[in-house]
Write a structure and sequence with these properties.
Strand content: 15-25%
Helix content: 25-40%
Largest sheet: 7 strands, parallel
Shape: globular
CATH topology of one domain: Rossmann fold
CATH superfamily of one domain: NAD(P)-binding Rossmann-like Domain
Number of strands: 12
């Protein structure tokens, strides 16, 4: 039975990845998660009865703990998703990003190196470093990020992920660790913490709160449904070449403003059935342009042709269908949304470097 060790498995992408992996009856998963504000045990509640899932609350910076999990479970792959990931928070205070994204990745790499050195790693073991397209910086009106695009991170978050990627690559080249690095475009879907654009807009709209759009709203992002990203990560773990890098994108570019307007239209259609009436001027009337994020990248776009050819992966969800599914999920899970909001986040503005 294949065994996966997933760091950050109670977070947004991580919990969806665990759910996707366990669809295969021959797979078992060990989750290591510290349960910080965006990682929640409740994200795995529907899987708790599955004997193939083991949850461990712990810190990826705890090298001895990671080493003990590797020794006990001898996973076929370590899928490293644990990260501080919100750009705005990194602008306000980068210290947690340095600790988790850089220091935590180093601790995991060292534990995996020791596991390999002790002769305990299974044949075909992979360390999958799950990263972001933001390490590449910002594009102009044309062009796409490729695997050979030079790194040019512009936010503290992106810089921390770029640093982690460099460490992962170095551990492959220097120590022979079978590392595979992946970069993805913007993810969306169920269980995403509401500091991120889509759930923030959906939940604010349902409460008739302003829909804050940064700057002119014409920043362009490529969007990838989370299940498609999870398929890609599993493909990289199974078929990725050690030392290889794979870029995953949805081939679905939209401006932020256009995306928000699409969400408004979907809510006009779907929310009344859930008992939520739009404001008098419609949800679009709630759009409010606010001060732009410092250093805001203008455009991201992924060329995923290498991953498609090398891994046999292709996204299964178009953006329109994925957005509809996502809106319906948040409408159907208002209790989850309310519980998240009651704990640690009031959906207020972040990312102004302390200036309000």
């Amino acid at each position: 039975m294949p065994v996966l060790l997933v760091t950050g498995g109670a977070g947004f992408i991580g919990s969806n990845l665990v759910r996707r992996a366990l669809r295969d009856p021959g797979t078992s998963v060990v989750v290591l998660d510290l349960l910080t504000y965006a990682g929640r045990r409740e994200n795995l509640a529907d899987l708790e009865a599955d004997a193939r899932l083991r949850f461990v609350q712990g810190d990826i910076c705890d090298g001895p703990l990671v080493a003990s999990l590797l020794r006990e479970h001898r996973p076929d792959a370590l899928l490293h998703l644990a990260a501080e990931s919100h750009v705005d928070r990194s602008i306000d205070d980068a210290s947690a990003f340095l600790r988790t994204n850089v220091g935590g990745t180093h601790a995991l790499l060292e534990a995996a190196r020791g596991h390999l050195r002790e002769g305990l790693a299974r044949d075909g073991f992979r360390f999958v470093q799950v990263s972001t397209d933001e390490v590449y910086g910002s594009l102009g009106d044309a062009g796409h990020f490729r695997e050979d695009t030079p790194f040019a991170p512009n936010s503290p978050y992106a810089a921390s992920k770029a640093s982690a990627d460099h460490f992962a690559r170095a551990w492959h080249r220097t120590h022979g660790l079978p590392v595979v690095i992946t970069h993805c475009s913007n993810n969306y879907g169920p269980y995403q913490f509401p500091e991120k654009l889509l759930p923030l807009m959906i939940l604010n709209a349902l409460e008739h709160r302003p829909l804050p759009v940064y700057g002119d709203g014409l920043q362009v992002r490529d969007w990838l449904y989370v299940d498609d990203h999870c398929d890609a990560i599993l493909a990289a773990a199974a078929r990725g070449v050690p030392g290889g890098t794979y870029n995953f994108g949805g081939d679905a570019e939209r401006t932020n403003l256009s995306l928000v307007e699409t969400l408004c239209a979907l809510l006009e259609e779907l929310a009344p059935a859930a008992g939520h009436a739009p404001p008098a001027g419609g949800y679009r009337s709630l759009v409010t342009f606010v001060t732009d994020r410092p250093g805001h990248d203008r455009r991201y776009a992924i060329d995923a042709s290498h991953a498609r050819a090398a891994l046999g992966w292709t996204p299964a969800h178009g953006l329109d269908d994925g957005l509809r599914t996502t809106v319906r999920w948040y409408l159907d899970h208002r209790a989850w949304c309310a519980e998240v909001a009651s704990r640690t986040y009031d959906r207020g503005r972040l990312g102004l470097g302390g200036a309000r």
